[in-house]
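W.,

You were right to be curious about this one. When I first looked at the sequence I had no strong expectations either way, so I just let the prediction run and decided to look at it fresh. Below is the sequence, 372 residues in total, followed by the output.
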Amino acid sequence: MSHSDAGNEEADIWDAFEEAVACADEQLKQAWKNHEIVQQTEEPLSEEYISALTEIEETTQSFDSVYEVTETELERANHTADNATFLASVTQAYREYHEGVIERRVSIRREWFDALVACIEDADADVAADQSSLRRKMQALERLTSAGKYGQLLDSDRIELADIERKVREFDQAVRDAVSPEVYIAVGLELAESFQEQYTDDLAGLVQVGVNKDAISITERVSDVPDLEPVRTRPKEDSTTLDDVEAVGGVIETYADIVVLTGKRREKYELGEKLITTIEDSNLSVGADVEKDLRPRLTSFQLGPIENSVERLIENETMTSDTEQLLQVLAKHDGSVRRTAQSLDRPTEKLFDDLQDLFLQDKIVDLEVRLE
């Protein structure tokens, strides 16, 4: 090999190394950002994610002290970039799940609030509740969600989604007290119908992609809901009652919760799809057949095994390079090449090549031959 060829080869390996390190840094930053947002929700990620991200961060920092890039260092950099990309994809999937749930919660409360405001305007009534303050908070919520600033929303002390949801329910009660039964019922029936259409569409969408109906049934949630048909079809000459108002109001509250629930289920299904796709794209072994063992879980809406598979990858395989894994398995089997090959399901001749490389790199200090 000429000096020119050697120089070009050295430059190529440096370029590949720097590209892998840059990719790892970029993906790690995105993963940390996603993780920070998810941790502020009601369903934070497990400690394994913090450990994995911290480990990758320490590894990327160690690359700053690399002054001679060997094939082993390049392998380590590529593996770190793969790990960072995997974690960025997984945390992004969880982030999008939570953002979708938040959007649904905001849109439902906004629709509910707007219907109540229309009710007041139709009746030209005064309401004791602070309508202007609630309106400002609703507008602030919408601005944050439309701008994608979910982290700012979750971190805000002034705007809490759960508090706004509670205030909308209180506002509903104040409107019931302020307007005539006829006005409230007219607006309330339309709102209840809209909510019902939305959760029906959610369920139909899930069934359409193959989810078992029984796995997402809401029969128990709607079984105690009053039948509004008598109220809806009552002749105009018959006066409505406060009982009718309470029935309509109760249905609105229940349907609002159900729409959030079914919206959450749709987002959860999408999360499962994204996690499975991430596993497939990573070419990592999860100890299960994705198509036979994991994907069917989506149809029965059992997402726990899918999420557990991802966590196992994060905790074990994805954080260990091929070289590190080989050394660990060798140590486990007291240096036995035969048992190591069986454990890794790797051809013995391929393992000998790897061992020779490790020996030349001083990763293995000695080799012993045992005759039987």
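Here's what jumped out at me. The two ends are 43 Å apart (CA to CA). And, maybe more interesting for your project: Residues 71-123 form the longest helix (53 residues).

Coffee later to discuss?

I.
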